[in-house]
Amino acid sequence: xxxxxxxxxxxxxxxxxxxxxxxxxxxxxxxxxxxxxxxxxxxxxxxxxxxxxxxxxxxxxxxxxxxxxxxxxxxxxxxxxxxxxxxxxxxxxxxxxxxxxxxxxxxxxxxxxxxxxxxxxxxxxxxxxxxxxxxxxxxxxxxxxxxxxxxxxxxxxxxxxxxxxxxxxxxxxxxxxxxxxxxxxxxxxxxxxxxxxxxxxxxxxxxxxxxxxxxxxxxxxxxxxxxxxxxxxxxxxxxxxxxxxxxxxxxxxxxxxxxxxxxxxxxxxxxxxxxxxxxxxxxxxxxxxxxxxxxxxxxxxxxxxxxxxxxxxxxxxxxxxxxxxxxxxxxxxxxxxxxxxxxxxxxxxxxxxxxxxxxxxxxxxxxxxxxxxxxxxxxxxxxxxxxxxxxxxxxxxxxxxxxxxxxxxxxxxxxxxxxxxxxxxxxxxxxxxxxxxxxxxxxxxxxxxxxxxxxxxxxxxxxxxxxxxxxxxxxxxxxxxxxxxxxxxxxxxxxxxxxxxxxxxxxxxxxxxxxxxxxxxxxxxxxxxxxxxxxxxxxxxxxxxxxxxxxxxxxxxxxxxxxxxxxxxxxxxxxxxxxxxxxxxxxxxxxxxxxxxxxxxxxxxxxxxxxxxxxxxxxxxxxxxxxxxxxxxxxxxxxxxxxxxxxxxxxxxxxxxxxxxxxxxxxxxxxxxxxxxxxxxxxxxxxxxxxxxxxxxxxxxxxxxxxxxxxxxxxxxxxxxxxxxxxxxxxxxxxxxxxxxxxxxxxxxxxxxxxxxxxxxxxxxxxxxxxxxxxxxxxxxxxxxxxxxxxxxxxxxxxxxxxxxxxxxxxxxxxxxxxxxxxxxxxxxxxxxxxxxxxxxxxxxxxxxxxxxxxxxxxxxxxxxxxxxxxxxxxxxxxxxx
Length: 882
Prior knowledge:
Blueprint: E1 12-16, E2 19-20, H1 27-42, E3 50-53, H2 55-63, H3 72-87, E4 100-106, E5 116-120, H4 124-134, H5 136-154, H6 159-173, H7 183-201, H8 209-223, H9 227-235, E6 244-250, E7 261-266, E8 278-283, H10 287-291, E9 298-299, H11 301-306, H12 308-325, E10 329-336, E11 339-347, H13 352-364, H14 370-376, H15 379-385, E12 389-390, E13 400-403, E14 405-408, E15 411-417, H16 420-428, E16 433-437, H17 445-450, E17 453-456, H18 464-472, E18 475-478, E19 483-486, E20 491-494, E21 497-500, E22 504-508, E23 513-516, E24 521-522, H19 528-540, E25 544-548, H20 552-560, E26 566-570, H21 571-574, H22 579-590, H23 594-618, E27 623-627, H24 642-653, H25 657-667, H26 679-684, H27 686-705, E28 711-716, H28 722-743, E29 750-755, H29 758-762, H30 764-767, E30 773-776, H31 778-786, H32 797-802, H33 819-833, E31 838-841, H34 849-858, E32 862-865, H35 870-881
Parallel strand pairs: 15-16, 16-17, 17-18, 25-26, 25-32, 26-27, 27-28, 28-29, 29-30, 30-31, 31-32
Antiparallel strand pairs: 1-2, 1-3, 3-6, 4-5, 4-6, 7-8, 7-10, 8-9, 10-11, 12-24, 13-23, 14-18, 15-22, 19-20, 20-21, 22-23
Subcellular location: Cytoplasm
Catalytic activity: pyruvate + phosphate + ATP = phosphoenolpyruvate + AMP + diphosphate + H(+)
Family: Belongs to the PEP-utilizing enzyme family.
């Protein structure tokens, strides 16, 4: 295939100790790994020389239908010559062998999602030359690793085919560890691996090192669009990137005997945030052995004993990097014959608990300012901290059946599954699954995300499972060597116990304990470091954060989470609180006359009043926005077939069958979402609005008489014309005046409306003549703007997302271009009429960080979200400011 033509810009960037053509600011072009390698080299750390092929080149490759852009191969060869001169070695030269690593690296870290090839450049002649210089065992161990990795990553040959040969040889020799194999064994294994290649591909393994390099570069570019990488980007909502860079580096070897090794560390504990090096080290091993979970490594302290000088240099490098980057760093390193080499650094993935402690500690240490610290914690981190923990860990000690490594903290309770596919299927059915694997691979990413917790038999604290789980705040116990997973039988053996798919298991990711059965969980609290951090957040944000709460219990939870009021109290939810209430509602619905309907409403009044009193008491001193009845009346009828519904209604309300059938017929609708609901109910049945308004005002005055500060705001739903709102406002004010007169007291209150119909947004200037506040109901506004039914969108939305027709589910992430424009337009129009108009939002988007940022920039006064997302919205609002 002829090379594709393209405009020529620099696409290959060199780096080596004390010199580099890039820096940490060039992540978009060099990827995170390439930018940080260049940065480490430029500040004088020992970085093996190499070069980075830019993300722009990857984009050009994809645009050309997966063909190398014109001139790029020549630029790569120029980069190779630069490395050869720097090292005094040459790719493919048996006398002066240069071996390379080829790694991916996008602008956003995607642990384990894309491809790496180590020891590139080996063939029979180079291996023999390497053996003469460095020993047979090292040379052929490197060669067999290269054959395995190149075959798997570049040529798509299953790793298991190579692993079978390795395990068979160890079994035949009676050996347990890879390191026990002799040089002769490894040389024989090289021959077997080459046979695997021929059997799988029908051709010989490519022995030309430059051809190996070309194929590896292409494989890294291709890995950007691998199913697992796409899935990871989808789960983590990573969009807008050019592709991956390719990092080609001189190999340094951790498998050159007992004075060599490899490790991964975090400059602070990523789970707890403790200021102490946290990592793992393997003597006589290569980096992939650690991160792939193939061998369970030792604690980093073991390195201090094995090679103290390299350890001390590493500690010093960690201090330099933290001070330089002003963040907790994730570092990969290799020691070759007691010489330390830095292979990678990046901001470390961390749990919510770790993120908050690191941010607070770094402010205390004077390393960062508060405003910087606020940016160091992601809204998703707070989401993790708001998840439950075990109620009483000491109570389940006799149920602990195994202990692994505490790879990602928190508590998880679920049923055992053994495959990623099953975890996704169970999650789709609403079940909580614990994914149990010997070790996870990047292909498991979908199941890992769907599971509530992950348990692995192999792999350390920095294995794939651990890193990915921590990034999601997902509970994970790894390296649990006492368990044996038998996938084909769907069982896991733990000591003398055999557990099957569907059995209940609890995991403590903070201690590594594996606990039999379902253990009780308790909610978290906003205290300690988190309390300190949130006080900084509240000190800078301008957008208020309120909560959607329908009961006094919800209101209390909202207040405890920092809510500054109730932005949406849905009165209809109160009707379902007891059988007596729902019977009264149904009597009201079925009543053939105003007199009977009023009688039913009189039964409902004390229930509503009592609930409002509880909410006002819980929100003492804060505003409470109460939405009048919104859903269509048929939603309050019993479910089931028509005969059962009629029978139940007749027994509850005293109606005869004929009247009941007629009433049901009258209530049935073809499209209830656009039907007889919201203010249309209050206009058709004004006595309904009157009852609710009376309950609100009587409750408000009763609480005021008890010393509670009450600020009620009454919200009229589903308004589309100023005349509808005018009708309801007049009614509400009449009731207010009656109640004030009867009870001998007045209170301040507001009447406003939900803007949830596109027409209402377009005539917002007219509606603002009557409304003292707007609250955007973005759930319905999204439905009506897109023309999507929330109940039916699942039939096509996954296809739209998969094909890129939509970037996000618009019911989760606000559509800023369409729905957002309506919000902007209505806010501007409304404030032209009423400059002091209070404007907020009470849909699901009120707790989604990117949507909150949009609302803050648009000039809204508040967002309202579920009580448990209030801290997340507070942080998102602060991050807009800093």
